[in-house]
Please model this.
Amino acid sequence: MHDSRVNVPYVTRDQESEVDAALSARRPVLIVGSSMAGKTRLAAARATAMFPDAFLWAPLPGNALRELLDEGLNINDFVIWLDDLDRYLTGDSWLDPGMLDRITGAGARVIGTIRRSALEVYRPRDTVRPAQWETVRRFTRIDLPRKLSEEEERRVDAKISNLALRAAIDRYGLAEYLGAGPDAVDRFDAGETNCPIGAALVRAAIDWRRASLARLVSLHDLKAALPIYLAGRHDILIDNTSVEESINWATDKINETVRLLLPYYPDPATLDVSITATKDSYSDEQLFEAFDYLVDLLVERNQSDDSNERDQAAIPMGMWSLVRRTAAPAEQKDVALAADAYFVSRPRVFTEVVAWLTSPSTGAPEILAITGSPGSGKSIIIQRLALMADPATRELVVDPLVPGLKVPPFDLVINARNCTRDELVSAISQAAYAPGRRNDPISDADVMNALLSRNSPFTLVVDAVDEADRPEEIAQLLTDLATGAPSRIRILIATRSYLVQYFTFARIIDLDAREYQNSSEVDSYIRHRLCAPGSPLADQPSAVDRIAERIASASNGNFLYAKLVCDAISIDGRLLDKVSLEGIMPSSISQYFEILPASLGPRERDAVAFLAALAHGPAEGLTSDDWVAAASELGHRSYSLADLDELILHTSLRTFVTADDSLNQRRYRLFHAAAREYFARRSL
Model:
């Protein structure tokens, strides 16, 4: 349970009767919800009210429960407290179904909590059915929404008279505001500029948890992750002093409530861990835990429609590698299970690409182009191939659909979005030169000589060629390299189909072709999105079946269409009603782009002006002030920052927009090339 910035009496929740009924019947109870939804407080309130004299036992994850039961401990009428149930579902001594049955059979009442995003790791998928799901199924599941119901809102009104506090709760939510959740997010996001080492340490602790390592993370492991999250930041000096200062930044209390990193320290006598006060310095053995609200935040951002936000929130492959090396043998399966939840499978495509990569050289130019319409899945295929090509991370991919598939190592993987020709030449030259040779050749001839002098072929992977600064120049460069150094370079690219004309000799895998269409893959993807944390359908399997079928039928195999509609359903209940009750579906991505602005009614024209301003703006995006100015010019009206918030940033239209903080000032752009093209030609 998190500290509160203001003392507010407990607010009765609508789910209390469900909790009471299950506990009275001695059924194990699992309260599921987002971080700071009030799970722990609800559990504590009901356990205390119903069993005030019972012995409450919060066992450590691992063997503690089993060992004490084996020694004959009588737990009749105990309340067994399993806060963060996911911590009890990992390792060799996880809480298996038989052990849970043994506990309840001995007369104990069991109450647990789990975050939605943590539960998703154990949900059965097409390729794997985790054993832990059988334990989860034995609990009576009670879902606790983050947003209060109307009746709960009235209870809050009756207990809180402070208007300013009430307004803050209305904006952020009761638990989020009281627990300083939004303040923690602001501090974490600002850390990239204000304290980059501290932000990197926090992010490493977050991804440690997301990768399914339930145990606390040591400072030693956090420091080992710094080069992963600070790659390319040559302006930052990492030494003992800067790390100590950054740890103190991360462990400082925010509004006297939460910390981004919570410090613990082991008691050598009991092997227990307890929270410690913030100190001036910590040893490498010091243990930490990331604020779980931030863990859920990164999970949500990793599912964003904003490709830049999604990419930045993804667990870096270097971190997967570190986690894999650090995990104990008993934890390896848990890490692999978590990794599988991040990636999807296209078995035929992967098999063909690997066959091409491993085939003997013919002496002819070698380029394989994966093409398709926007949203066909090109980039996710490249990302998964890169993961499978790295010896340190390939075992993280659980893919029984392609047993024994081995992707050979890649020499360079680059995303060409906004990349210039010179930047690509520089990246290839640095990767192609062996240690001890010249480091910075800048001419095409230097790169060609480097390739020709190699003893083995150079494997280059370039994603999003069509989103480069000048795609035609990049395409011509890749063609020149392949023809100038045949048998010395193999090039795998992902691009939209119009650039294929520059690769006349390339082998093509067209994801839009009938032979690569697989309705079951899209259907599986849609079901995963509709069941994701925060979806209004997360706990309605019959509704998911019905709606997934409609979306899959309308998508024609297009992953972008499927993702857009699924996310819109999660955000806008009106679209859910149309799909569920009326069977109305957008017929295309373009119609989807029409539907969402139209949902604003008379202000549709204003919203389109803002979106068109981004479509006509520079590739790197617009600042908020420039965005408002450009929209005012296009819309022939005088807009303000308040209009921007009202029309875009606080409505479902925010799914069209991505924010980029890599420059000195935040800039906004449309999330996908398809949106940019549509709104560039959309008339006002």
Remarks:
- The chain has five domains: 16-145, 181-322, 347-515, 518-585, 598-681.
- Confidence is low (pLDDT under 50) at residues 1-6, 267-278.
